[in-house]
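Task 17 of the worksheet. Students: predict the tertiary structure of the chain below and write it out as structure tokens. Keep your answer in the requested format; marks are given for formatting as well as content.
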Amino acid sequence: MIQRIQTLFLLLASGSAFSLFAFPFAKAKAMAQSTVFADGLYNLQDNIGLLILFCLAGLLTFVGIFLFRNRKTQLLVNRLAITANIIGLVLAVVLFMNDSQNMTANVTPDDGVGAYLPFAFLVFAFLANHFINKDEKLVQSMDRLR
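Model answer:
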């Protein structure tokens, strides 16, 4: 299980999704009129949808590690995780853009590490999918030889 490269990529993808709990998307001066930057940080706890989607993505990739015996199910679970991550990323951008209208002109948010973690998740998840497909093709070609 651990000796396969896709397991490492799935673990890295899961870790990058769960790292969003520690790293905010952006930092700015706290603004009372803002819904996102009320505490000065834009993170997962600002919206329940973000919290659910990124937890789901991290959980699905972690569960996908243990589905190594059934590669088709592993691919399906990983694709669902990628979909949840993309929807979460779009929701995060939409919430930020909606809230940017409430920001004053002299406040510019600084992006945090969390802004890049969903993209790292996508890279690791797509690499895991690539290697899962490669394993599936290898097994199918070996079955043809038998």
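Marker's comment: The chain has one domain: 5-145. Residues 22 and 60 are 19 Å apart (CA to CA).
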